[in-house]
């Protein structure tokens, strides 16, 4: 078994709307995303010969995730989150 592993970290904020305590307030965390791609054998032909997969493709996908969430406010998918997203969109705030 061959395994290719890559990871990213990003910082983002969130809050727990129905929580009674400090976590009800907006606060941040450092998140880590780990991707592992495994194969029983390596590619035998083509551009990926000798590889599990093209590492640059995996890195590009992780960069998209990083850019989507880094230093953003992650909202719950409920009415409160939708309303806050609409308001911030009108006010040109970046979530």
Give a description of the structure.
- This protein is an alpha+beta fold.
- The protein has one domain (about 1-90): Tetrahydropterin Synthase, Chain A, CATH 3.30.479.10.
- The chain is built from two helices and three strands; from the N terminus they run E-E-H-E-H.
- The protein has a three-stranded mixed sheet.
- The longest helix has 15 residues, at about 55-70.
- The protein is elongated.
- The model has no long low-confidence stretch (mean pLDDT about 85).
- Gap between N and C termini, in Å? 41 Å
Low-confidence stretches: none
Query: Order of helices and strands, N to C?
Result: EEHEH
CATH architecture assignment name = 2-Layer Sandwich
Beta-strand level of the residues, as a percent range? 25-35%
Spatial ordering of strands, largest sheet: 2-1-3
**How many structural domains does the protein architecture include?**
1
In round numbers, the mean pLDDT is 85
CATH overall fold name: Tetrahydropterin Synthase, Chain A
The CATH homology group name: 6-pyruvoyl tetrahydropterin synthase/QueD
**Number of DSSP helical runs:** 2
What is the radius of gyration computed over CA atoms, rounded to a whole number of angstroms?
19 Å
What characterizes the major β-sheet? Answer: 3 strands, mixed
Q: Estimate percent helicity.
A: 25-40%
Question: How many β strands by DSSP?
Answer: 3
Instruction: Give the helix/strand class.
Output: alpha+beta
> What would CATH call the class?
Alpha Beta
What global shape is seen? elongated
